[in-house]
């Protein structure tokens, strides 16, 4: 609102102000663009799949680039969706529990809605088959789905005659914490493996190796864990030395001042672990775990910790032994609520597992660094050539090595993130962050990791963070805020295809796909494009369009882009910058009454733009900036 007198002409000048400011020096809480669900549909940037049965109850998604399909597990159903356009050409498998199993489930006192077959496992088993498991009305079962070869006639068939019990592979309860990964023909699963949901364990099953699990009722290993993610990450070229990593949160025994402290963990074990010969028979003998720290340093030396791990994403690099790990955390405090994203390198994780063990002499003692003699082979190491090749399997390990591993699963050193602090912190309480995927992009001025963050109200945030080495500070740039679903429903699963530049997003009721970028939405001028700071986009002399690194498209015109600084004045010099921009400034004529107020309306496309109004009292008078009150 602005006061006005006589006949006045108001000119909108905010566009030029944003141009001339050059780069950004501070984080902005506003996204560059905010697009509603309707706008995404109108732009043909998204497509949404709804179950023809009216419900989906999504549990898991599997992206298959080879088959060019997205497989979706839900309640009594498995869907096969086209990666090109998920809302057309779908296939389905109806896989309900039998009427008898459903009735027995209800008779045991379970809710009728839970007494169904919730499909929670979908993995590539080989080129022609998927492994799938479901809760089976509280009697888990597994089967194979034949999908055929890529160039064959389309197949999507459940081989129910090959179904078998799924205990240790799939939880009983559809809402129970659960993760799994398939390595070769071996299924590794972190789950609550009993009907009552009390027996938390990590299992290996299905393949040629013997079934193996964590010990029963040993809180030193797992104490009320919430499983978040699992990955096989090799240390070297020796397959016998391969290890699988589990990311989870649990109640921390070493937090002696609190019985309810929750810590984020990384657990590690050898893929070829066979257990011990006399001790830990058919139990993991190489399991170790370490605390995963994500905290903000405090002014008084007291850090603010984000201990509840919500999601984890593994960003593969050219070196398959050293992926980058992104963790999405929230706080466990009832007073302070916030979210943070921390980044970890495998060197830090390996250093913790190669470091000292945590030790507690007895119930009345405190946890400390173990300073005694460590047996050979080092507890937690695999039976491999890299480790000397002296032992064929862990069954050959000496009893003292197995005994030590059993009593010392916790490492003393915590795992710290890159830069020793988060790359992003959110404490505004606008929404809760639930899912994360990352795409690594080559831009004109370097390499950037674009974060796609799913929230609990159906929004995906597209964000980059830029580290300033001189100030040791992190700048957060929110590029887009996308309302993926019509209703504000939680996002519970996300898959990413860098090859297709598409994001696949699952909620309980629907699955959506959305393109990474829509460069022309930033504006039709060079400055609009450069100020966006989107590594996917650059000014090509005519429009804001997709950026391709040098050599990718030899015939592309010159590109103007500055992601790090957003310096449009420098990038767009001579590109219809000053004179033409002035000519395009919109003028509006408004009438006002002296000593009264006039409503001035202007909604720029960019939410980061600052709008300034000038008043001109008379046609030949000088323009003067007018003080306004924003609503």
UniProtKB/TrEMBL annotation:
Q: Keywords of this protein's UniProt record, alphabetized?
A: Disulfide bond, Glycoprotein, Signal
Domain Sema residues, every copy: 32-516
Q: Which domain of life is it from?
A: Eukaryota
**One GO cellular component term noted in the UniProt record for this chain:** extracellular space
Q: Which SUPFAM superfamilies match?
A: Plexin repeat, Sema domain
Q: An example of a Gene Ontology BP annotation on this entry?
A: axon guidance
Cite the GO molecular-function annotations of the record. chemorepellent activity; semaphorin receptor binding
PROSITE patterns from the entry? SEMA
InterPro entries, per database record: PSI, Semap_dom, Semap_dom_sf, Semaphorin, Semaphorin_3E_Sema, WD40/YVTN_repeat-like_dom_sf
Q: Where is the signal peptide?
A: 1-25
Query: Is the keyword Lipoprotein assigned to this protein?
Result: no
Classification via Gene3D superfamilies: ligand-binding face of the semaphorins, domain 2 (3.30.1680.10), YVTN repeat-like/Quinoprotein amine dehydrogenase (2.130.10.10)
Its taxonomic placement starts with: Eukaryota, Metazoa, Chordata, Craniata, Vertebrata
Q: Is Disulfide bond among the key words of this record?
A: yes
Q: What is this protein called?
A: Semaphorin 3E
């Amino acid at each position: 609102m602005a006061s006005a007198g006589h006949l006045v002409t108001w000119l909108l000048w905010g566009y030029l102000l944003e141009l001339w400011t050059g780069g950004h020096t501070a984080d902005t809480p506003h996204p560059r663009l905010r697009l509603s669900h309707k706008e995404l549909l109108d732009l043909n940037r998204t497509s949404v799949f709804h179950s023809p049965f009216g419900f989906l109850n999504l549990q898991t998604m599997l992206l298959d680039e080879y088959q060019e399909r997205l497989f979706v597990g839900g309640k009594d159903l498995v869907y096969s969706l086209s990666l090109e356009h998920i809302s057309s050409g779908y296939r389905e498998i109806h896989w309900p529990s039998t009427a008898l199993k459903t009735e027995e489930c209800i008779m045991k006192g379970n809710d009728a809605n839970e007494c169904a077959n919730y499909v929670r496992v979908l993995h590539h088993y080989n080129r022609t088959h998927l492994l799938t498991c479901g809760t089976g009305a509280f009697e888990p079962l597994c089967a194979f789905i034949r999908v055929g070869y890529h160039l064959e006639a389309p197949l999507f068939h459940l081989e129910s005659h090959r179904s078998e019990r799924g205990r240790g592979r799939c939880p009983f309860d559809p809402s129970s914490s659960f993760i799994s990964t398939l390595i070769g023909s071996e299924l590794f699963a972190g789950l609550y493996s009993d009907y009552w949901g009390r027996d938390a364990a990590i299992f290996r099953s299905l393949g040629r190796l013997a079934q193996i699990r964590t010990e029963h009722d040993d809180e030193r290993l797992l104490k009320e864990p919430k499983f978040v993610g699992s990955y096989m990450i090799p240390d070297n070229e020796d397959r016998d030395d391969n290890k699988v990593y589990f990311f989870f949160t649990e109640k921390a025994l070493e937090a002696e001042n609190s019985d309810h402290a929750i810590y984020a963990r990384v657990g590690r074990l050898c893929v070829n672990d066979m257990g011990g010969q006399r001790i830990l028979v058919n139990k993991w003998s190489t399991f170790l775990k370490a605390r995963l720290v994500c905290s903000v340093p405090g002014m008084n030396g007291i850090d603010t910790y984000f201990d509840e791990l919500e999601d984890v994403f593994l960003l593969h690099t050219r070196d398959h032994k050293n992926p980058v790990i992104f963790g999405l955390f929230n706080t466990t405090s009832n007073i302070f609520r916030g979210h943070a994203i921390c980044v970890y390198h495998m060197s830090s994780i390996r250093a913790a597992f190669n470091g000292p063990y945590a030790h507690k002499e007895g119930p009345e003692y405190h946890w400390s660094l173990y300073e005694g003699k460590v047996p050979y082979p080092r507890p937690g190491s695999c039976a491999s050539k890299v480790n000397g090749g002296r032992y064929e399997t862990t069954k050959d390990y000496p009893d003292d090595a197995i005994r030590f591993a059993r009593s010392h699963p916790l490492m003393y050193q915590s795992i710290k993130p890159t830069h020793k602090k988060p790359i992003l912190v959110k404490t505004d309480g606008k929404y809760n962050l639930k899912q994360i995927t990352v795409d690594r992009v080559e831009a004109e001025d370097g390499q950037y990791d674009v974060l796609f963050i799913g929230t609990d109200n159906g929004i995906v945030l597209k964000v980059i963070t830029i580290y300033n080495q001189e100030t040791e500070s992190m700048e957060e740039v929110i590029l887009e805020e996308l309302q993926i679903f019509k209703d504000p429903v939680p996002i519970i699963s996300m898959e990413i295809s860098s090859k297709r530049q598409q994001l696949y997003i699952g909620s309980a009721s629907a699955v959506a796909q959305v393109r990474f970028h829509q460069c022309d939405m930033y504006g039709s001028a060079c400055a609009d494009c450069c100020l966006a700071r989107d590594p996917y986009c650059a000014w090509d002399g005519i429009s804001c369009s997709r950026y391709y690194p040098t050599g990718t498209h030899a015939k592309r015109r010159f590109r103007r882009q500055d992601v790090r600084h957003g310096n449009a004045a420098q990038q767009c010099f001579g590109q219809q910058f000053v004179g033409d921009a002035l000519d395009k400034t919109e003028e509006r004529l408004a009438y006002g009454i002296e000593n009264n107020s006039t409503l001035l309306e202007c909604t720029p496309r960019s939410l980061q733009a600052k709008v300034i109004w000038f008043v001109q009292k008379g046609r030949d008078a000088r323009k003067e900036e007018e003080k306004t009150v924003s609503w």
